[in-house]
Design goal:
The structure is a single chain. The chain is α/β, with parallel strands linked by helices and 342 residues long. It has 2 domains: 186 residues, Quinone Oxidoreductase, Chain A, domain 1 (Alpha-Beta Complex), CATH 3.90.180.10; 140 residues, Rossmann fold (3-Layer(aba) Sandwich), CATH 3.40.50. The chain is built from 10 helices and 16 strands. The chain is globular.
Length: 342
């Protein structure tokens, strides 16, 4: 089967950073599905994995990246009970296993959802990782209720609202009845954030509190940090309401003063959507349920895909181009590759 992977961890402008491969087609066991991959999305985790790998290490067999896919079930393992061959699926995957940048891919069915019927494969591949991250952060880590009536008058601040996760979190938070304040600094990112449901935007390059006060929201019960925890920490501490909650998907580069939250009895939580599959948690199947719920919301017109760029085919040259685009740091929405070469 065709695949794209790496032997060494190299800068993306090196043609050997990602290379085309021919690998054996895997066989599903246990609860695994064998999926014929139709489209893959590129995320910051791909970039971080490639850039932060050991400089002198040579991977043998080559390492396959990619943690967002949509495709068709080709075969199922003997313990599979949720899917059958021919089912169209989408999923984010498991950081401890080979990624989905391959023509055929093994994935545990408990973290797979039925693809939204109203979307093509590329549109669907833009959604799994960001949807799982946003859903888990809002409803599990921050403890937001899904009942709009209970959220009336409450606000959430989403830092980097125009990014992949921010674009989904905005839609979910708005659907849950929260007033959504998103950070964005460029005209195009401000416009994107508003199109996806933010009620207000503020500039993340400036202190939050004065901008929030000008909006009539001097303190916020929920903050979701999707970018540069170090830069925003003090501003979040100032803005969070007493007994409020902050969730981040990015780790700090330097120590942050967690004790600064003590006076407000504020909660700080991490969100990593790979936690459930990585540790095979007892509730791992929740990701299957979340993806099926998101698919139903998409098909009902309540959530829309965040796909903004397509590349074809899925090969090393295009994946290097996609990685380079994300490394520039100004990506809005999601970049998806579709169709392996014949």
């Amino acid at each position: 089967m065709k695949a794209v992977g790496l032997y060494r961890y190299l800068p993306i402008d090196d043609p050997e950073s990602l290379v085309d491969l021919e690998l054996p087609r895997p066989t599903p066991e246990g609860r695994d599905l064998l999926v014929r991959v139709k489209a893959v999305s590129v995320n910051p985790v791909d970039i971080k994995t490639r850039k932060r790998g050991p400089k002198d290490k040579v991977e043998e067999p080559p390492r396959i990246l990619g943690w967002d896919a949509a495709g068709v079930v080709e075969a199922v393992g003997p313990e599979s009970a949720l899917f059958k061959p021919g089912d169209e699926v989408y999923y984010a995957g498991d950081i401890t296993r080979p990624g989905c940048d391959s023509e055929f891919h093994l994935i545990d069915e408990r973290i797979v959802g039925h693809k939204p019927k109203s979307l093509d494969f590329a549109e669907a591949a833009a959604l799994p990782l960001t949807s799982l991250t946003a859903w888990e952060a809002l409803f599990s880590r921050l403890g937001v209720t899904e009942q709009p009536a209970e959220n009336q008058g409450k606000s959430i601040l989403i830092i980097n609202a125009a990014g992949g996760v921010g674009s989904i979190a905005t839609q979910l938070a708005r659907r849950a009845g929260l007033t959504v304040i998103g950070t964005a600094s460029r005209p195009e990112s401000i416009q994107w954030a508003k199109e996806h449901g933010t009620d207000y935007t503020i500039d993340h390059h400036q202190p939050f509190a004065p901008q929030l006060k000008a909006l009539g929201n001097p303190t916020i019960p929920y903050i979701f940090c999707l970018n540069n925890l170090d830069q925003h920490w003090d501003h979040m501490v100032e803005a969070i309401v007493p007994q409020g909650k902050i969730c981040s998907i990015v780790s700090p580069q330097n120590p942050v003063n967690l004790g600064a939250l003590m006076g407000k009895s504020a909660t700080f939580a991490w969100e990593l959507m790979f936690t459930r599959p990585r540790f095979q948690t007892a509730d791992m199947i929740e990701q299957h349920h979340i993806l099926d719920i998101v698919a139903s919301l998409v098909d009902a017109g309540e959530i829309k895909t965040t796909l903004t760029q397509r590349l074809s085919p899925i090969n090393a040259a295009n994946l290097r181009k996609a990685h380079a685009t994300l490394e520039q740091g100004s990506m809005i929405g999601k970049l998806v590759l579709e169709k392996f070469p014949e």
